[in-house]
Write a structure and sequence with these properties.
This protein is an alpha+beta fold and about 110 residues long. The chain contains two helices and six strands. The chain has a four-stranded antiparallel sheet, with helices on one face. Strands 3-4 form a two-stranded antiparallel sheet. The chain starts with a strand and ends in a 17-residue tail after the last strand.
């Protein structure tokens, strides 16, 4: 099994979730995060004082998928989140050894 993690722009969230549902109804975990990368930060002025903001709001989307669905899920996320502009985000996959569905005790792919 694989944990697919994506950091995307907040405005792309709805499209990514809809695309994942259309591609097979994958469950998702969504977290509001902040970070910095190549996009960098920006400056704001508050009451006449300039402030440098080095972190930018992003959304973290996590999907647990079977090994054979990994590339398809990644492709769906990338296609739905891509604008072609700096700051679109990143997607990566991590191996998952154990999964247990708490309600039933099912393990492995049965727990997905």
């Amino acid at each position: 099994m694989r944990l697919i993690t994506a950091i995307i722009q907040p405005h792309a969230l709805e499209g990514v979730v809809q695309a994942l549902r259309s591609a097979g109804g994958h469950g998702v975990t969504i977290t509001e995060v902040v970070g910095s990368g190549r996009q960098g930060g920006h400056t704001e002025i508050y009451r006449g004082t300039e402030y440098r903001i080095d972190t930018i709001p992003k959304i973290k989307v996590e999907v647990l998928a079977a090994e054979d669905e990994e590339q398809h899920v990644i492709d769906v996320i990338v296609q739905a989140a891509r604008t072609g502009q700096i700051g679109d985000g990143k997607v990566w996959s991590t191996a998952v050894d154990t999964v247990v569905r708490v309600r039933t005790g099912e393990t492995g792919e049965d727990a997905l």
